[in-house]
Known about the structure:
By secondary structure, this protein is of the alpha/beta class. The protein has helices at about 5-20, 20-35, 45-55, 70-75, 90-105, 120, 145-155, 180-195; strands at about 60-65, 85-90, 110-115, 135, 160-165, 195-205, 210-220. α2 (about 20-35) packs antiparallel against α5 (about 90-105) and α3 (about 45-55) packs parallel to α4.
Amino acid sequence: PTPETWRRVDAYFSETLVGHDEALEAAVADQEAAGLPPIEVAPVNGKLLHLLARMSGARRVLEIGTLGGYSTIWLARAVPDDGRVVTIEAEPRIAELARRNFERAGVAHKVEVRVGRGEHVLPTLTGEEPFDFVFIDADKESNTLYLDWAARLGHPGTVVVVDNVGRGGEVANPATTVSNVIGTQRGLEMLARDPRFDATALQTLDAKGWDGVAIAIVTAVGGT
Ligand code: DHB
Ligand code: MG
């Protein structure tokens, strides 16, 4: 397929099955106006996260990497009114922008933004109720660390989704020197070898280009 054909198919799927949504589009517009990169998930991918969270019956969702909160809004809409999405954002300025987007989307009561780097914030979540669903979408160099915390903070049955595992095909280059691709490869190798997970991955061709998503289930909990 050429970019023209698969972009047309993605637009068709988006228009047919996702539709337009003011709060989500405003969140992306504000993110862009703030000079942030347009690296939120594609609409079809946001809806995939939403459906996976609903299918798994998730009440407590953990997201690592908030940005403008586009995927966070999709996830917050998937949990019941007494559910929670805890989302981790390293940059205070971005966290504030995301909070305004959650207010406008009417999901602020279900979302907690924790500001700080994942490696610092994740250990503080240890005493809380376990998470039913984890979405990993931050610095790819830390994917193995984030997966370890997903297993620690989850329970058998917790669904884990990792964004950007295709990386324009570079993920299949064993000689790559790109640090975020190496981080992605280590994460996938961990999902394969670590007995706490069972996983697969799918390539995606959507509004964000050629990439991929890994989907895993936590089979056992605890640290390695
Ligand atoms: C990048 C990060 C993402 O999470 C994404 O979805 C696309 C690109 C990046 O860092 O380039
Ligand atoms: Mg991403």
